[in-house]
Amino acid sequence: MDKQLQEQSQMKEHLEALFAHVTELEEDLHTARKGLLKSEEVNTKLQWDVRKDDLNDKLENEITNKDSMHPQTEDKKLQLREGLELVEKLRQMLQRAEMLPEVEAEVA
């Protein structure tokens, strides 16, 4: 009987040790889950930051391209304005040239 009590006592101690170990493992699991959630939050934030940076880079490139086109547009506008001024001068010269025969007839 003593032997049975001793075995039961040892089994009880062994079970208590196992329960303590299971409790420790559950705590470790809980800590690991919290760490995983935190890591996922950080990962999501980093992905958002990368996406935001990519979009900012894209917008900066578009602005740079448009800014570089602005002087070209201004040059074209100036060329067109100068061309229109020349056309107007030519039109005025043609009007005077058309009036020349009348003026010559009056002078003669």
Topology of this protein?
Elements: H1 2-107
How would you characterize the overall build of this protein?
It is built from one helix and no strands. The termini are far apart. It has a domain at 1-70. The chain is mainly alpha-helical.
Structural category: mainly alpha
Per DSSP E runs of 2 or more residues, the count of β-strands stands at 0
Order of helices and strands: H
Shape label:
rod-shaped
Rg, rounded, reads: 46 Å
Distance between the termini: 158 Å
Main sheet: strands, sense, barrel: none
What is the overall pLDDT average? Answer: 92
Strand percent estimate: under 5%
Protein name: Liprin-alpha CC2 domain-containing protein
Pfam families: LIP-1
Domain Liprin-alpha CC2: 54-107
InterPro entries: LIP-1_CC2 (IPR057892)
